Amino acid sequence: MNTNRISRWYLLNLAGVGIFCVVMLWLISKFLSSGLYPLASIFIAVVVFFTLVYLRPRLTPFRWMAVGIGIVIIFTLYPILYMFYLSVTNMGSGHLMSKQQAISRLEEQLYLPEDSQTYSWTAYQSSDGEFALWLIAGEGENAGQGLLAIPGEPIEAVEPGTGRVGEPDDKGIPLSIEGYERLDLRQTVPLITRISSLDFGEPPTTVRVSSLQVAAPLVSRYEYDSAEDAIVDLKTNEIYRPIEGTFTSESGEELSPGYIVYIGLRHYKNFLGNSRFREPLLSMLFWNISFAFMSVLVSFAVGLIVTLMFENLPGKRIIRALLIIPWPIPVLVSILIWRSMLHPDLGFVAPILESLVGQSPAWFQDTFWTRFGVIMVNVWLSYPYFYVISAGAIRSIPTEIFDAAVVDGAGAFQKLQHITLPLLLRILMPLLIASFTFNFNNFNVIYVFNFGNPPRPDTIVPMGYTDILISFVYRLAFITSNVTNYGLAAAITVMLFILVGMMVLIQIRFTRLFQEAY
Amino acid sequence: MRNAEVFSRSSTEPVTTRTPIRFEKWAQYGFAYLIALVLIAFAVAPALWVISASFNPAKSLVAGTLFPKNPDLSNYDQLFSSEFFPYATWFLNSLKIASITTLLAILITCTAGYALSRFRFQGRRTLMFAILILNIFPAILAIVALFSMIQQLGLYLPGMGLDSHAPLIFIYVAGSSGINVLIVKAYIDSIPSEIDESALVDGATHWQTFMYIIFPIMRPIVITIGVLTFIAAYGDFIIARVLLKSSDQLTVMVGMLLFQTDRFDRDFGIITAGAVIAAIPIILIYIPLQKYVIDGLTAGSIKG
Question: Smallest CA–CA separation between B83 and chain A, in Å?
Answer without folding.
Answer: 23
